Amino acid sequence: MSRSARLLTLLQLLRGRSRPATARFLAGELGVSERTLYRYVADLTAQGAPIQGEAGQGYMLRPGYFLPPLMFTREELEAVLLGLETVDRLGDPLLAGAASRALAKVEAVLPPSGLDVLRNPSVLPGPRGPGFPEGRVGLDRWRAAIRDQEKVRIAYEDAQGLRSERVVWPLALGFLDQARVVAAWCELRGDVRTFRTDRVLDARPTGETYPGRRGALLKAWRERMTDAERS
Fold this sequence. Notes:
This protein is α+β, with helices and mostly antiparallel strands. The mean pLDDT is about 85. Helix 2 crosses helix 3 and helix 4 runs antiparallel to helix 5. Strand 5 (about 180-185) and strand 6 (about 190-195) form a beta hairpin. The protein folds into 3 domains: about 5-60, Winged helix-like DNA-binding domain superfamily/Winged helix DNA-binding domain (Arc Repressor Mutant, subunit A), CATH 1.10.10.10; about 75-120, no CATH class; about 140-230, SH3 type barrels (Roll). It has a 5-stranded antiparallel sheet. About 45% of the residues lie in helices and about 25% in strands.
């Protein structure tokens, strides 16, 4: 393994860790001495990598640091490009803009072979659909409630035209082929539910934070959707 490859591998080993990794562990993974490992850490830090820690305590990356896709295989890069282009087609203006900026960042660090994949892809997303029905409640309001784990009181009209009022705990936004949905815990039903955003007639934040971890509730919603697909 070349030195540059070891440096990138070191960053990969550090990324996403919740606890510091010892120099002994990292050196063993890279097949180098601890002394060489300390030199690698110093070099990466000098180049701007936000590595926290010191010898004897272990190392980790500060949250929010992303590696440029220099080590992507052709198939991995095509998967990233296909995902970004799909977001551009299905996402709202905020996500579409983010996908465009992300693609520009990927392009800026690609080697010539990667640029060829970008300009002449072998996989393409499907055509743009007719668009999505607009809801009365903007997606930004849902994003804020999801981020803050805030309960929201909604007025909802189902597919049969029946209206109800309920308090929901927004967990995530879903972007489907022909609709946008909110995955949520519904206090009325005492269970996870999916609501089409265009059928939400009104949504008012309650100012109350819902209990528990959003990740655990979202896992329950995913399991429910999986069970529904199998039945």
